[in-house]
Amino acid sequence: MSYDLAKIRADFPILSREVNGKPLVYLDNGASAQKPQVVIDAITQAYSMEYANVHRGLHYLSNLATEHYEAVRGKIARFLGAAHEDEIIFTSGSTEGINLVSYGWAAPHLKAGDEILVSVLEHHANIVPWHFLRERQGVVLKWVEPEADGSLPAEKVLAAITPKTKLIAITQMSNVTGTLVDVAAIGKGTSVPIMVDGSQAAVHMPIDVSSMGVDFYVITGHKLYGPSGSGAIWISRERQAEMRPFLGGGDMIRTVTRDSVDYAAPPLKFEAGTPGIVNQIGLGAALDYLTGLGMENVAAHEKGLRDYARDQLRALNWLQVQGDSPDKGAIFSMTMQGAHAHDISTILDKKGIAVRAGTHCAMPLLEFFGVTASARASFGLYNTKAEVDALIDGLKFCRELFA
């Protein structure tokens, strides 16, 4: 199918607005993506005409809400290439999913001196839960550094494994640089359990967890053009059987007595309390939208943007791009001598260009690159080459101001 960019952009109402009197150029997709009208409509419909609590009622609205909510589990399973729907556990996002692995699987399995392999590319959400285990149980965090260009070869990760390595926690795509990590090669090269942060990668490329040889894979809805507070984690049946519940409450039990608890079977075992019903329904609509476009088509479009932006940015010899590895997504973090990242972001904002500035919840990686903050432009399925040009013009204007 053809990739009709004008039609796609028309699907996102916010892209028609102005910021500071300029057409919005939204290049902060790495933090959170905008929402197509079909997602907004799905949320409105669910709240206005179909809302009730799920799993608990026999009345019409409860059954309807449950049907629409549970249908999303299958959509996520197909989107991720999971073999079984019950391998999909609903979460509020990647952070909750990773914490579920930390509390539910790692904490009862790891002891003092055991190692968790963590890459320096990681978002804090895939670092801090492992620090909890370091602080509380004496688990050792063993860091794997990328190459100077930000790339992280699979063989470098595999070479860091020792008999004490009990878990590998690794991103598939860096949220700072867009670096792609070949997690399938890592999965095929070791039997050590692997927890993959797919928050960025799942937005930009087709995913097939069944062929990766990994054990845990998290996604977050707000980056997938869905609502905030939605997401999921894929956990293989083998690992689910080894896990204890993370949260206790309603829905995750079969029976409760004064003396005992009988837990429900997965995935409900790991889904306590009233869930984000409408958020997940909105995520289902977002996945329908992405599936309709075809993730191969999204990846091809964004590859074109990446290549074009890379060429334009490299021509600015006064700009430093961190981690410009060959195999990466359309994410660029940059610094400019004499101008703080916050200054760059503020000046670009005056021209209607939205970029992120700061540490991007990845302080170890910025420390590795020797910077305290960067400005990050992250592209999505609706961005255009004209918006790349607008970014370049904005950066040149920054340069003129600070030269």
TrEMBL record:
An individual GO BP term: cysteine metabolic process
InterPro entries per the UniProt record, alphabetical: Aminotrans_V_dom, Aminotrans_V_PyrdxlP_BS, Cys_dSase_SufS, PyrdxlP-dep_Trfase, PyrdxlP-dep_Trfase_major, PyrdxlP-dep_Trfase_small
Catalytic activity of the protein: (sulfur carrier)-H + L-cysteine = (sulfur carrier)-SH + L-alanine
Protein name (Swiss-Prot/TrEMBL): Cysteine desulfurase
The EC number(s) this enzyme carries: 2.8.1.7
SUPFAM superfamilies hit by this protein: PLP-dependent transferases
Organism lineage: Bacteria, Pseudomonadati, Pseudomonadota, Alphaproteobacteria, Rhodobacterales
GO molecular function: cysteine desulfurase activity; lyase activity; pyridoxal phosphate binding
Entry keyword Nucleotidyltransferase: no
